[in-house]
Write a structure and sequence with these properties.
Elements (H helix, E strand, L loop, with lengths): L1 E5 L3 H16 L3 E8 L3 H7 L5 E5 L3 H23 L3 E5 L2 H10 L3 E4 L6 H7 L5 E5 L11 E4 L5 H4 L8 H7 L7 E6 L15 H12 L3 E6 L19 H7 L2 E4 L2 H10 L3 E4 L5 H8 L3 E4 L4 H11 L2 H15 L5 H12 L2
Length: 342
């Protein structure tokens, strides 16, 4: 079987890493079509995954539209050349368009029920859609399947991920002090149009507040002031989650990374404009503190509260309860690929 994977974001690499390995282990041929976005290509390289890059993230509405046209054409060309039996992606805009044009089946996993523009561009053309049970957006009637849990269970299910202390140390963890991971984003994706995140002042205040209590490591998509440069994460992309698993707290504008932290047992605060159903579900289950940009003072107050030992212990109990009975999503993805291949 020939399977094409559409990789447009670092989270896509984590979602599909184990399914790719399973397919290759049984002899299937895999083509990975990538996009220059944040550390997506770097992460593929570090994991030893050969890929073909056909676009780079555009900037602003016109830049994103120009990139979509470029990526659609590039994907159509790759599909014509590779002739996949099935294509799969997270979101899957370009594989949906290329599949509709070429008659090749396309399947998408997706969780962001707040991404209205992307879904309008994709759902009319996608062969089949897979969303979490808590997904609250509109889906193609008769072409949608719901799965339990969240997409991060493909990589961070206990069967698939083991914390490596050596890699955590290499990435910056120091066991003699509390470590804190902060993530700030650029707000440049199609679902971010018209939205903004932390101000430079808020980010600086957050770093200063946590630096007084331990070691701060800052992962970012945006340009940092010279004063914040010493806190920048400089390790390998593939080691970041081993570091995250050893941190006392995650605070960030990335809902995806908050979900990852929660599954790894790290108390997590998500402070962002979008609250998809998966984030709200994790918050309801006590795994994530979900804030709606309340401002600097309220954010620092929640950070201080989550550092209390009793609160930290409650996060681990919530994680164990949430994981009970949750399946390995990597296996589910391989089954979905087999189901839709021609």
């Amino acid at each position: 079987m020939r399977v094409l994977f559409d990789i447009v974001h670092p989270a896509d690499v984590l979602l599909f890493h184990h399914p790719m390995a399973r397919l290759r282990a049984r002899g299937d041929e895999v083509l990975v079509v990538s996009r220059e976005k944040d550390v997506a290509c770097r992460l593929l390289d570090e994991l030893g995954i050969v890929h073909r890059t056909i676009s780079a993230k555009g900037s602003g509405t016109l830049g994103l539209a120009r990139e979509l046209a470029q990526r659609d054409f590039g994907m159509w060309r790759e599909v014509r050349r590779f002739r996949p039996d099935v294509m799969i992606g997270l979101g899957g805009v370009s594989i949906a368009h290329a599949g509709w044009l070429t008659g090749r089946p396309s399947i998408a996993f997706y969780a962001a029920d707040t991404a209205k523009l992307q879904t309008r561009l994709t759902w009319p053309f996608i062969t089949h859609l897979y969303v979490p049970e808590v997904y609250q957006g509109e889906t193609p009637e008769g072409r949608t399947t719901r799965f339990p849990g969240i997409k991060e269970l493909s990589y961070f299910h206990p069967d698939n991920f083991t914390i490596d202390e050596h890699r955590a140390r290499k990435a910056g963890w120091q066991p003699e002090k509390d470590c804190f991971l902060i993530r700030t984003v650029a707000w440049g994706a199609n679902h971010d149009i018209g939205k903004t995140g932390w101000s430079d002042q808020t980010l600086a205040a957050l770093v200063e507040f946590l630096a007084a209590r331990g070691k701060v490591i800052l992962s970012t998509e945006r340009e940092l002031s010279p004063a914040l440069q010493p806190y920048l994460y400089r390790g390998d992309a593939k080691d970041l989650h081993h570091l995250m698993a050893k941190c006392a707290l995650y605070v960030g504008e990335s809902a995806t990374m908050a979900h990852e932290a929660a599954l790894l047992g790290t108390p997590a605060i998500y402070d962002g404009a979008d609250h998809p159903g998966t984030t709200r579900d994790l918050a309801a289950n006590g795994l994530v503190m979900a804030l709606r940009q309340p401002g600097e003072s309220a954010l620092l107050g929640e950070v201080e509260r989550l550092l209390e030992p009793a609160v930290q212990e409650s996060f681990e109990a919530a994680r164990q309860g949430y994981l009970a009975g949750k399946g390995n999503l990597a296996e589910f993805i391989v089954d979905a690929i087999d189901r839709h291949a021609i």
